[in-house]
Amino acid sequence: MRKLVVLASGSGSLLQALIDAPANGVTYQISAVIGDSPTATALTRAQSAGIPAIALPKTGLSADQWQQELKTAVMSFAPDLVVSAGFMRIIKSDLFKLIPTINAHPSLLPNFPGSHAVADALAAGVSETGATVHYVDAGVDTGEIIAQQAVQVLPGDTESSLHERIKVVERNQLVSVVVRLCQQDDLWAGLRDD
Length: 194
Ligand code: GRF
Fold this sequence. Notes:
By secondary structure, the protein is α/β, with parallel strands linked by helices. The protein has a domain at 2-104 and 133-150 and 170-183: Rossmann fold (3-Layer(aba) Sandwich), CATH 3.40.50.170. Helix content is 34%, strand content 22%. The protein has helices spanning 13-20, 41-48, 63-75, 95-98, 117-124, 159-183; strands at residues 2-7, 28-35, 53-55, 81-84, 101-105, 128-135, 145-152. A seven-stranded mixed beta sheet has the order 3-2-1-4-5-6-7, sandwiched between helices. Strand 1, helix 1 (13-20) and strand 2 form a beta-alpha-beta unit. Helix 1 runs parallel beside helix 6 (159-183). The chain is globular. It starts with a strand and ends in an 11-residue tail after the last helix. The structure holds 5-O-phosphono-beta-D-ribofuranosylamine. 5-O-phosphono-beta-D-ribofuranosylamine (GRF) binds at residues 10-15, 85-86, 104-106, 167, 170.
């Protein structure tokens, strides 16, 4: 059974999908959830599931200190895989070089990287955007792409309505990628499905 640490900042619905994935055939256990805000719903979801939940606020720390704290906290669980699922921070330590780290992003990368991907897609007037899971590297949403799925932009879509439809896709996509990666001998090997 592979060990995961999940990083999450927000509502944690992607985390919940990883928690709720059917036990049959599941290849992982979640050792801990780490968030950057003590009030993140994601941490409450972890606690409700009996998973250690750690809040690492930046308050009082320099950027470098916080990055080191994050790395130390993650490494203390010796995970096989780190999953950034709605984590609104960029990992700037060498953590992603030591442990395979993947990120869920709500666009068809390389289009619309960054923290406003859904709003940027709407503003650009594209007819489709989507969901990507990729390896984390030193850039912002630039790592090797593992899986992608398109989502149509519908007339009248708002950022919220479009993001909700993307998140429906992201939940299945992330669980599927994590299950499949955890079945591999080499979690760095990647797996493209498109
Ligand atoms: C997802 O769209 C993810 O791609 C983005 O943040 C969102 C997380 O949603 N980085 P939730 O907090 O898991 O509901």
